[in-house]
Amino acid sequence: MKVEEGAVVQINLVNGDGAIHDLALPEFGVDSDNISGKNSSTTVVFRADKNGEFKYICSLPGHVAAGMIGKIIVGDVKPEPKSTALDISKNPMEVGTPVGKRGPQTHKVNLKTTEVIGQLGDGSTYKYWTFNNTVPGPFIRVRVGDTVTVDMANDKDSSMIHSVDFHAVTGPGGGAAVTQAAPGTSKSFTFKALNPGLYVYHCATPSVAQHISNGMYGMILVEPEGGLPPVDREFYVMQGELYTAQRHGETGHHEFSREKMMDEKPEHMSFNGNMNALTKTHRMEAKVGETVRIFFGVGGPNATSSFHVIGEIFDRVYNQGDLISPPMQSVQTTTVPAGGATMVEFKTEVPGKYILVDHALARVEKGLAGLLHVVGDENHDVFEAHSAVDPNH
């Protein structure tokens, strides 16, 4: 909507679905009555006495996250210059090459630690600390018995010392004790992958929690002998949290808040680095009848995840990233601690949009959601709708 500055504006809100809704414009002190029942309506009137771009929303919990948000432009507002912030979100399809039935090999892993201004949400930015300019860092895929050399270079423009601790490493600090690298320097070490499993890695330079929160985490998969059973689709997803002085949803640049981190009160929570990573930027897709595997980890630094895919049941859950023990079966929600991981597998039976969440569902309000799009023919033997599917769900 676009109106002249100083104009008196009337907005009529009509309920099209029968659920409870309202209309709020916080910057103008507008908050309508709640309306319920299909075709019910309400009206708000206000004076547009501020020049700029403003949001109008449904203020009921969860409705903004479902898409009930819009923009009103008051006066002659010049468009903001295109953001030069980096898209740090990690592509979930970048999972490396399965090891198959090969024997042990030697690998080199190159990590570069960077400090970059990245996109946080629509209209907001944050200074992320990263491995290889993405959050999470690269997905590393090796085999048990492989020998791995890690070369870690800290960018010359960094302001902080950085390091890397691999939970898959047997050795001092998981490698962190020998990789404390000042800006513009490099460190290296070699380890043997002794144990199969799915493991987290992260920066381990004090304050460790701040380095992790800012984006310095990733995962390494150590496949067992013979490799993992083949599946049709594999995805790499990690959950993280950010602590900022600014509130979630505010535009502009957000600054780190140590106080909120110590109180374990994150303003933002996300999959794969930012608010749009798995909802707008990267499209996770599978076809009906395909098998899906998700490598899921929690960078943290503080919150435990209750990982759940709405509308699906995990056929197999490899609890705590354990690839040796028999998996759990027919699991609805699985717990993954900070610094932990799990591998889940399921077969897609019905087309539709499936939402990845942490079932501590208030966290959806802080940005923690992803989408898996399943395409193909309907399967009425499994699921048949008797009314139109809600496009906002």
TrEMBL record:
Alphabetized UniProt keyword annotations: Copper, Metal-binding, Oxidoreductase, Repeat
Its family remark reads: Belongs to the multicopper oxidase family.
Q: How is the cofactor bound?
A: Binds 1 Cu(+) ion.
Q: What class of enzyme is it?
A: oxidoreductase
* Domain Blue (type 1) copper residue range list: 32-74
Q: What is this protein called?
A: Copper-containing nitrite reductase
Enzyme Commission identifier(s): 1.7.2.1
**NCBIfam families in UniProt:** Cu_nitrite_red
Q: Which InterPro entries match?
A: BlueCu_1, Cu-oxidase-like_N, Cu-oxidase_C, Cu-oxidase_fam, Cu_oxidase_CS, Cupredoxin, NO2-reductase_Cu
Catalytic function, reaction form: nitric oxide + Fe(III)-[cytochrome c] + H2O = Fe(II)-[cytochrome c] + nitrite + 2 H(+)
The UniProt annotation places Cu cation binding at: H162, H167, H202, C203, H211, M216, H359
Q: Cross-referenced SUPFAM superfamilies, in alphabetical order?
A: Cupredoxins (SSF49503)
